[in-house]
Structure formats: C-alpha cells, structure tokens
C-alpha cells in the first residue's frame, strides 16, 4: 500500500551567487528571503507542510507561479532533500517531472531505455522487450538509435513519456509538461496515461489547468508562498481559488 506523509516539511534554496551587501539589503525586504547561519541568502520554497496522501488519492497541486508546486513534486520524488521536518514515501515512484531527468545525452534513445530497465533490475531480454515497446509508442523511427542530444523538444517529450509510462509505478508524480505533446501524439498518449493513473495507488500532479484537475483528481492542495492554504475535495479548493482570482 502506498503512502506519502509529510510533517513540518521545509525546503530552502540558497542563492550562492548573491554576495553584494547592497543587493542583499534590497532583497531582504521580501518575505520569503532570509539569511542562513552562514549569512547566505536563502529562499524558503516550502514552509512547514503537513499532509498525508493515501491509496486512491489523486491529488492536484495548485497555486500561482512560484507557489512551490514543482519544488514539492521534486521533493516527493527524492530530487531535493528537506531542510527540516520529515517526509516518508512508501511505494515505487514513477516521475514524469523533468523531461530529460536521468537520461544520458550522448546515448541513443534505445540505450537510455535499456539503462533505465537495467537500473530497475530487468534482465537483458526484458530490457530488449521494453526498448521495443517504447520505440513503438514513441514513434521516433530511426531517431531511436541516434544520441538524444540531437532530438527536438517534442521528440524528447515523446521518448520520456513512452519510457515513463512503460513501467507501472505505485506513486505517480507528474508535472504539467505531459500535456505539451503534439495533438496526434496526445490522442495516443491519453489512453496510456489513463491506464497509468488507474494502475497507480497514488497520483500527484502539479498544474495550472483546472480542467485537468477536474478530470483527473479527487483532491487538491492549494499552495501559495510555499505554504498550504487549502487541502480538500477538488471543488472546495478550486472554488476558494476562483473566488480570489
Ligand atoms: N533551483 C532553484 N534554485 C533557487 N530557487 C528556486 C529553484 N527552484 C525553485 N526556486 C524558487 O522556489 C520557489 C517555488 O518555485 P516552484 O518552481 O516550485 O514554483 P511553482 O509553483 O512550480 O511555479 P510555476 O507555476 O511557475 O511552475 C520560487 O520562489 C522559486 O524562485
């Protein structure tokens, strides 16, 4: 059974390159910036978050630009380490967050898929099958056997999507880029996405698109300034957001 539990979760980003004292003074008036014990400026991206997400929850992270949605997703995926509080994620994670995350630019599409499969503990034959399956869905033709640094943005999305959706996770974490494919690809992708979401115990998606929230989610967490302003059924949380828009 999959569970995500956060207690007093906090995350800061240090700004290493900001050294000038006058600049520091100017920035310090802003509420999310402060200095750490080493006198570096840090921005508080997530503040004191408490929540529990359990099996069956399809959660939308909503809120304005800079609210902390992507940072929270990446923290759930283990990309960032909290600076305070605790976070427990039980269940195998599948992340559709950064298109190129975990990919080697100099390797081909096929090599990248095989590497991912080996990392997940698949046998050689299973990796071959996985590569064939991804190749067919991504529809990259001969480009599947060319280094991925030569891919266009759309080709990168196709490969990442096909790869990320080829293995069923228990905890599915998604940023809204999955909607960015071309129309023909998305028509094909939607069915696969629905299967992936249906097969996951937990889904968390960061999005600005209320239609996406209403279609795919049963719960929404509203973030602003790195804090949780509301957490509950979709209509309740979106209603609060629409009222303040
Ligand atoms: N790598 C980073 N280094 C420094 N600050 C960062 C970094 N990533 C995010 N931040 C800061 O953390 C805060 C939250 O950003 P985040 O990207 O999580 O917001 P978001 O809600 O996903 O916004 P958007 O809707 O614009 O994608 C912002 O103040 C941002 O400037």
Automatic annotation (TrEMBL):
SMART domains in UniProt: AAA (SM00382)
Keywords: ATP-binding, Nucleotide-binding, Transport
A Pfam family matched in the record: ABC_tran
Coiled-coil stretches noted in the UniProt entry, renumbered to this chain: none
GO MF, one annotated term: ATP binding
Family classification: Belongs to the ABC transporter superfamily.
Alphabetized InterPro entries for the sequence: AAA+_ATPase, ABC_transporter-like_ATP-bd, ABC_transpr_TagH-like, Bact_Polysacc_Export_ATP-bd, P-loop_NTPase
Protein name: ABC transporter ATP-binding protein
ABC transporter domain mapped to chain residues: 23-245
């Amino acid at each position: 059974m999959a569970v995500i539990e956060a207690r007093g979760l906090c995350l800061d980003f240090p700004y290493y390159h900001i050294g000038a004292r006058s600049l520091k003074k100017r920035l310090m008036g802003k509420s999310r910036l402060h200095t750490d014990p080493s006198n570096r400026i840090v921005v508080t991206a997530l503040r004191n978050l408490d929540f529990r997400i359990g099996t069956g929850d399809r959660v939308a992270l909503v809120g304005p630009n800079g609210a902390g949605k992507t940072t929270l997703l990446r923290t759930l995926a283990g990309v960032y380490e909290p600076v305070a509080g605790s976070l427990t994620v039980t269940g195998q994670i599948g992340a559709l967050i950064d298109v190129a995350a975990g990919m080697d630019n100099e390797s081909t599409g096929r090599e990248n898929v095989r590497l991912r499969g080996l990392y997940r503990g698949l046998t050689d034959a299973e990796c071959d099958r996985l590569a064939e399956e991804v190749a067919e869905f991504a529809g990259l033709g001969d480009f599947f056997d060319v280094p991925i640094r030569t891919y266009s943005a759309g080709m990168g999305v196709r490969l990442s999507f096909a790869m990320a959706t080829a293995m069923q996770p228990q905890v599915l974490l998604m940023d809204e880029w999955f909607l960015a494919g071309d129309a023909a690809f998305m028509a094909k992708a939607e069915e696969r996405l629905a299967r992936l979401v249906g097969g996951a115990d937990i889904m968390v998606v960061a999005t600005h698109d209320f239609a996406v929230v209403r279609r795919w989610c049963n719960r929404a967490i509203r973030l602003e300034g790195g804090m949780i302003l509301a957490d509950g059924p979709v209509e309740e949380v979106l209603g609060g957001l629409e009222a303040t828009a």
